[in-house]
Write a structure and sequence with these properties.
Elements: H1 3-6, H2 9-21, H3 28-37, H4 48-70, E1 75-79, H5 86-89, E2 96-101, H6 103-109, E3 119-123, H7 129-132, E4 140-145, H8 154-167, E5 170-178, H9 180-185, H10 207-210, E6 216-221, H11 226-229, H12 234-244, H13 247-252, E7 253-259
Parallel strand pairs: 1-2, 1-4, 2-3, 4-5
Antiparallel strand pairs: 5-7, 6-7
Length: 260
């Protein structure tokens, strides 16, 4: 796989790590895949602090998706799904859950996930707006964009939002983003560098991304909720708060909800 695809093993390791410790995230599928694939990650990628952070991010996306589905039926589109098992972790099931990623990623997914009437997998390049327009029809779409925006340019992200907004009358999106400062800083201190990624995109002003789409920013969410931090040991909580809850962390990394 290419460098961007290889980044999927970093959050996979984190989810497997915390699941084995029985904290933050119950994810036996991540444990299974990690044991089977055994992709060689090293350095910061195997830090327990990053594992906790990745797992908390996943849990926030899980809980948000669950909440969106409580409002009524929708198609869930997890674009850039990697090997994530959110389709299993979220208990409220939509009429269709579609996991999308590059073809080589979907080929690996098919070793571990089976399609059903309500669950499908599909090869999709998020930068290809024409492909996005061929996604399944539905009045409402819940779109998960976790760990993907930093690999897409402003033009590509705007095209993605525009294609989605033209297709779905009602649209809910949750997306994490690096700030411009965060993207620049990542050149010196980011685990994805260890799997070969050298270029990342950051955004301070989100308006150009949603201009002309009918989307609006609903709110900014927190990655590291206090209830999840409290699942760590007392000493770990102190260190984790220093690393991932201060003003510097927010200068680097943000999480936004959009709707139409």
């Amino acid at each position: 796989m290419n460098e961007v695809n290889n980044t999927l093993f970093i959050p996979l390791y984190g989810k497997s790590y915390v699941s084995k410790k029985n904290i933050i995230l119950n994810d036996p599928k991540a444990e299974e895949i990690w044991e089977s694939e055994a992709f060689p990650i090293r350095g910061k990628s195997k830090s327990k602090w990053l594992a906790y952070n990745m797992a908390m991010r996943a849990r926030v996306f899980d809980d948000w998706t669950e909440k969106m589905l409580e409002s009524g039926d929708a198609v869930v589109l997890h674009i850039g799904c990697g090997l994530d098992s959110r389709c299993l972790r979220v208990k409220k099931k939509p009429s269709l859950w579609l996991d999308c990623d590059f073809e080589e990623v979907i080929e690996i997914r098919r070793r571990y996930y089976e399609e059903t009437e309500h669950y499908r997998m599909r090869a999709l390049d998020a930068s290809d707006s024409e492909a996005v327009r061929t996604l399944p029809e539905c009045d409402t779409a819940v779109v998960v964009l976790e760990g993907i925006s930093m690999y897409l340019s402003e033009e590509e992200l705007h095209s993605l939002f525009l294609a989605l907004s033209k297709k779905y009358p009602c649209l809910h999106i949750l997306m994490d983003v690096y700030t411009v400062f965060g993207a620049k800083a990542s050149k010196f201190k980011n685990p994805v560098n260890e799997v070969g990624v050298t270029e990342l995109y950051g955004y301070d002003d989100l308006e150009p991304l949603i201009r002309g789409t009918g989307l609006r920013i609903v709110q900014e969410h927190r990655f590291t909720r206090e209830d999840l931090i409290r699942e760590l040991s007392a000493q770990e909580q102190k260190i984790f708060r220093l690393l991932f809850t201060g003003k510097m962390y927010r200068r680097i990394y943000r999480l936004y909800e959009f709707e139409k």
